[in-house]
Amino acid sequence: MTRVVVLTSGKGGVGKTTCTANLGMALAQQGQRIAVIDADFGLRNLDLLLGLENRIVFTALDVLAGDCRLEQALVKDKRQPNLALLPAAQNRSKEAITPEQMIELVSKLSAAGFDFVFIDCPAGIEGGFRNAIAAAKEAIVVTTPEISAVRDADRVIGLLEANDIKTKRLIINRLKPAMVQEDQMMSVQDVQDILAIPLLGVIPDDERVIVSTNKGEPLVLEKKLSLAGVAFSNVARRLLGEKVSFLDLSAPHDDLFSRVRRLFRG
Ligand code: ADP
Ligand code: MG
């Protein structure tokens, strides 16, 4: 059985593509065969985050048009053979494919024996969003702890509900613990209270994420994992059903060091 997971948010720029690249790589490192689909037709960038942009020959649209086989369009990661990218075509409108075509692509990937298919959703809740969720059985909702992102995530959760996607889990990205402590940023608990779906993970804000994006090397490839890298790797383990403890930001008399220690133990 292939697990088909869409990563979505409503608001753009909150970290969907970053999460897709890092979780995809982390799951592959943990022995899962995974295909990541860039469903952002028109504004693709998953290939850049994975550093695979120069290796694209065919795209999902060529597969659908019958111009190539699925295997020809899939770009295998050189560093991690369990990971493959199905690229989107650039310079076409977001309506370039239909929900039915997305379902067709995903069923081809299932038939090819992947354990996971991750679908990186475009921003917004228009056509591109509907295509991206059409084939998904599970959703990972990504938000930052900002009111505008949380509000959009809430709308998206409603739409996922309406589309019968029952398994919905939350990633809170770009958390700044020091700001939370000073009451200048929503806490994990605040966000969870509003969105009321199970928490899959919390990723700290870390400039190394931006550096890794620019290098095309997901953080989870680092030899000595940074905090954000550990957080991504923990999310992957939770997806596989492992119990991994969370950053606890609500604990009284807490300090950054004990949180860091707990994260590493987890
Ligand atoms: P989306 O796909 O939702 O539009 P991206 O994954 O492209 O968002 O991320 C938007 C920007 O935020 C990128 O520049 C990325 O490097 C940065 N970013 C994402 N997650 C983090 C993080 N945890 N810490 C710091 N920067 C981040
Ligand atoms: Mg994106």
UniProtKB/TrEMBL annotation:
Record key words, sorted: ATP-binding, Cell cycle, Cell division, Nucleotide-binding, Septation
GO CC terms, sorted: cytoplasmic side of plasma membrane; cytosol
CDD domains (alphabetical): MinD
GO biological process, one term: division septum assembly
One Gene Ontology molecular-function label: ATP hydrolysis activity
Positions bound to ATP: K11, G12, G13, V14, G15, K16, T17, T18
Domain CobQ/CobB/MinD/ParA nucleotide binding: 5-219
Highest taxon, organism lineage: Bacteria
Family membership: Belongs to the ParA family. MinD subfamily.
Functional note: ATPase required for the correct placement of the division site. Cell division inhibitors MinC and MinD act in concert to form an inhibitor capable of blocking formation of the polar Z ring septums. Rapidly oscillates between the poles of the cell to destabilize FtsZ filaments that have formed before they mature into polar Z rings.
Designated name of the protein: Septum site-determining protein MinD
Gene name linked to the record: minD
